[in-house]
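Fig. S4 source data, part A: sequence.
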Amino acid sequence: MRIAVIGPGAVGGVIAAWLAQNPALDVEVCARTPFDRLEVETPGRSLVATPRVLTAPDQADPVDWAIVTTKTYDAVATGAWLARLVGPETRVAVLQNGVEHVERFTPYVPAQRITPAVVDIPAERSAPGRVRQRRDGTILVPSGAAGEAFVALFAHTPIGVSVTDDFRTAAWKKLALNCAGAVNALTLMPSGVAAREPIAQIMRALVAECVAVGRAEGAVLPGDLGDTVVAGYRSGPADGINSLHADRAAGRPMELDARNGVIMRLGAKHGIATPVNAMVVALIEAAAG
């Protein structure tokens, strides 16, 4: 089975390295920068993999699975890869932040070919092909034939890949976690900053707006989700750095729209005020220049 991983950054590098451990899978990665091999420090051991590295869409041919792990703002560039990778039987899995996985790629792939995925794999890339995976993590995909086929790809890995009958709720719960992480990008401080109660209160306010909008979109979200999110930040590694924080610190483009802007946009659609998310987005954009 041929698999292409588009965007071998932190999460994409982990995914590609683990899939490549199965000799029955022919794995290639679609990248901007060439590298000789993947090296991933996992919680259990060091992984080394040597997938084919493609650096231009015209090098690609149709595959069985195209797994998208690019940033949400790279949809157009990813679409150029999909134009070459997607054949009559190709399935596309979208492992990205936010709640608009399918909508983001229907300009390039029919919706029925797309399997959205909620990913929780804390990882950081130090250089092209070099990744630190902090824990095994999980991936959730919708129930159905495509979801079950995706789960089967990871049977040989310690990553907890499973299906859910309520993907919408799963995606909004992940968005609640991500939207709170905007505080880290704003302060340029790692997860341990959540130990400060004034910071935790801001995170809870961000999540409360996410919950209100998510419920309006049909997600089933508990009222105490903000407390759960803060507790998760406090119990995790104090030096953990989320991708929004890492991107701002490195001067790279950020996924603000997918993580916080979407709450503002969909909130406006439903007539729900989201002033805390709007304030944090404005401050991050101003600070980033």
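Fig. S4 source data, part B ends here. The mean pLDDT is 96.
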